Amino acid sequence: MKEPAATGLTDEQAAAVRAKVGPNAVRSHRARPVAVLARQLRSPLLILLLVAATVSFFVGERTDAVVIGVIVALSVGLGFANEYRAERAVEALHEHMRSRARVLRGGTLVERDVIDLVPGDVVQLRLGAVVPADIELAEARDFECDESVLTGESLPVRKNPGDTALMGTVVTAGTAAGTVSQTGAGTAFGAIAAGLGERHAETAFQIGLRRFSGLLVWVAAALTAGVFTTNLIMGRPLLDAMLFSLAIAVGVTPQLLPVVVTTSLATGSRRLTRLKVLVKRLVAIEDLGDVEVLFTDKTGTLTQAKIALRQAVFPDGTPDPGGADGPFRFGVLCADPPGSTPLDDALHEAMHDARAMREWAPENCRRIDAKPFDHERRMASVLVEDLAGETRTIVKGAPEAVLARCRAVPEESRRLAERLFAEGARLVAVAVRQGERELVESDLDLAGFLVFSDPPKPGVEHALERLAALGVTVKILTGDHPAVATGLCEKIGLPVTGVLAGEEIERLDDAALADALPATTVFARVSPEQKARIVGIQRSGGLDVAYLGDGVNDALALHRADVGISVDTGADVARDAADVVLLEKDLGVLADGIVEGRRIFANTIKYLLMGTASNVGNMFSAAAASAVLPFLPMLPSQVLLNNLLYDASQLTIPADAVDGEQLARPARFDLGLIRRFMLVFGPLSSMFDLAMFALLLRVFHTAPPLFRAAWFVESLATQTLVIFIVRTRRTPFWRSRPATALVIAVGVVVAAGLALPYAPFASDLGLAPIPPAILGTIAVVLIVYLALVEVVKRRFRTVPAPRGRHLPPHHHVHRRATPFSRGLRVVRHGLARSASGS
Ligand SMILES: Nc1ncnc2c1ncn2[C@@H]1O[C@H](COP(=O)(O)OP(=O)(O)OP(=O)(O)O)[C@@H](O)[C@H]1O
Ligand SMILES: [Mg+2]
């Protein structure tokens, strides 16, 4: 077996093992061009079409077959380019967000990317961390893991030395260390993640989209079969009938749908990055848009987190000048090293400022023992020995916790604490016990209080107003005192309907707590577990819950929330637990993120409504016309070209602007609405097409090339221009301004369609130039059609979105798997290292 766990592996040994067993990854996030291309070609329709075109090239119409080939290649290229770009965006996100484990390498504790772990590595685990591999525990102190991601069991499981902490589970209590026994795909977690496939999780929205595509597949199948048989009955050549019906089927199916969704998400993530919001998984943007309740911690979100020591006072309230026996000195002696907690940092800062006038120096005291600050106990204590050899336990922490351990607390000190709390100060009590040789935290003497200030952040009021306007309820979960939290709420204009303190929450069972949630704005003096419990109970009530926090004490709640949001400068367990990382801790950018999520949703719906309303209608008309006309209303290649141009005009929809009123509430996918939309607007647009046919045949007596050219232009113009009406619920539609990109794209496409019949290669496409009289007719038909859609769309105005939980299955596995994915860069790095190691 391997050498003792105490020193772990060296980096070279680890690299050698890794060369053999591979990285600790459960999936890969590399954008692979071949895979993306394969996805574009996966459609059986396209393959059938290409086969038919090839056959026709050899036995029949050569130009038509070539044109079909070119158009199919163009649309595959279009889909490929867009989807590949989106995949690259995902890849870039991953490279931003590596997660690190604490591992012993060559006897020293270092941080390494989780995917670099190998069997034999000795790893340390702490509260809130995701277990980075299967780890056989050598030591464990009060250690518990939440294994629900593997077992579904939500109660934490106790782990003792000899047990295995399982990859992907979350440490809910205690600390532990042990040796990695299995990594990556060899773990249970790896097996589950692998079973879900390489690609990211489908959101509820994407599931809805898939159902919707399923619906269209049926429409397409029915249409194709119908068109094919009628065309055969009408005596058209088999190959023509086949090509035509396949082209219609291609026209009906929204091939670009997946592309539009991923492009929307990628565009959204780029915009958010500019706003200093990083999303770890693209789909998290959509989750952001659904947020209904936001829990947030207090420090740094609502306050400036510029915590400064305002004053130190003796128990009777007189100021401490900073002498050797005052609370200030004791507080400094009890502070954890810089960087541990904001309060201690403020103490270090204050000491630095006041250094010159001190007759004592902390260096003159020797630290014999220490219990660092812990969010559960809300206290820190040390045992120190001064130059004279005198020993002293110093305890500092939340006044409730410290005063409970003092032997006699004067009534005036309690009143003093109450008063300071009411003023909104962050307050810490300091108490000492002299003479003992070991650390004793009872029968203390109160030395005084340290009063810290942490002013509200400017701009918070405005951010809260925005969130309220977005329908998001904000609640505070803080380890601080209730009076401080409510005082702050008053200052920043957050109406407080109710306050619950940790002790009271402890006494409530889940049902009672669930009942209390709606009326409670402030949860104070809550422990890390309580934060997570509150988030969990709020979620089980059916609302989408986000949690914003940056401390070690926030990690559990971040894991539990639908959307975990942390801050770049926060504790690393918090950052690892989050889906969204803010580069600046600011509620305002969060509102931007929520808006972005909803914008993407709204734009995708636009694309769907467009596809069903006009595209399907057009294809339907073509099918119907082929049954009554003596010739094909459009050649198969023209159907495809028409569809390609239409698709191209739709590609800018992800960048379109969305009306404010549509962003005000989270929206839910409503298949019913889309179906109704299709049933009303499909026939409506077909009616106009059929009227156009009648005019072309009866009034203008057109020959096939002119007939096809006229209808090509009319159908392209109606189906693309209608976007300006469908994209907004406002009437008249011009009260909503579309994005310039959309206007340009649609304009260019319509112009191109209009120009085609006059192009030198028009006859190759089977089109003839359109005379002015027919152009005029097209314009009239177009205007009447658009006007009618404008009127009818009002009927679709208010459809209350169904609410309720919608997170798809395996959401948590996908989310937990994010850090364990391997990208190009990381793999190369690993190879380079193992090469140099050998
Ligand atoms: N370094 C420290 N030493 C002693 N006591 C501390 C220290 N840091 C915090 N406390 C006490 O513990 C309480 C809870 O702090 P904690 O950091 O758990 O709150 P929190 O939930 O992070 O608060 P917030 O919501 O404001 O971020 C504080 O109000 C304070 O009384
Ligand atoms: Mg905090």
Low-confidence stretches at least 5 residues in length (pLDDT < 50)?
A: 1-5, 824-838
Under the CATH scheme, which class of the largest domain?
Mainly Alpha
Q: What is the CATH homologous superfamily assignment of the largest domain?
A: Calcium-transporting ATPase, transmembrane domain
The major β-sheet equals: 8 strands, mixed
Report the mean per-residue pLDDT as an integer: 84
- Computed over alpha carbons, the radius of gyration is 33 Å
Please tally the β strands and state the result: 23
CATH architecture of the largest domain: Up-down Bundle
What is the number of domains? 4
Q: Which descriptor suits the 3D outline?
A: elongated
What's the CATH topology name of the largest domain? Calcium-transporting ATPase, transmembrane domain
Structural class per helix/strand content? alpha/beta
The distinct ligands, each listed once, are: adenosine-5'-triphosphate, magnesium ion
Strand order of the largest sheet: 9-22-21-20-10-17-19-18
**End-to-end distance:** 21 Å
